[in-house]
Amino acid sequence: MGTAESLQIVKDGFAAFGRGDLPGLLALMADDVVWEIPGQGLPLAGTYRGREGVASFFHKLGEQTEIVDFQAREFVADGDRVLVVGWERVKVRATGRAVDLDWVMAFTVRNGKVVAYRQYSDTKAMSDAYASAASAGG
User: Fold this and answer.
1) Are the C-beta atoms of 114 and 29 separated by less than 8 Å?
2) Backbone region of residue 123 per phi and psi (left: phi > 0; alpha: psi in -120 to 50; beta: other values)
3) Does the residue 91 lie in any domain?
4) If you average pLDDT over every residue of the chain, what do you get?
5) What pTM was estimated for this model as a whole?
């Protein structure tokens, strides 16, 4: 699979996410996709495996956060690797705290499907947003 095809699959995934089309997004995943979210101790952190695992991640994301703004600003692709540079404002439902995050999302695409994903963002800022007002001193 070439660079252009890998890039288009990732862009299609972002379009599906933007429409709230979880089935469309999951259809772009390989059966054995590995979806990694860093941040030891954070409620969304972990490794999610397979389409069911990715669906579980997005379900938890929707339950725990409100995405106020989400911008994929730059796509960089080379062969089966696609990096997306972006920014988001997320509000944690349990605390009402909002956080602005710059991020990079790294995708690996093979045979027309996403086989691996890893997010790189400020896990400390997310941890602070999840912290209770009392423990944060506010």
Assistant:
1) yes
2) alpha
3) yes
4) 93
5) 0.91
Residue corresponding to tokens 């339950």: 63
**Total structural domains in the chain?**
1
Q: Which whole number is the average pLDDT over 71-88?
A: 97
Q: Please name the residue that has the structure tokens 């423990």.
A: 135
Indicate which CATH number applies to the domain containing 45: 3.10.450.50
pLDDT at residue 86 greater than cutoff 60: yes
Of 90, 93, 97, nearest in space to 136 by CA = 97
Separation of alpha carbons 40 and 77, rounded Å:
29
d(C-alpha 100, C-alpha 80), whole Å: 29
Distances (CA, A) of 112 to 4, 5, 25, 51, 85: 11, 8, 13, 15, 21
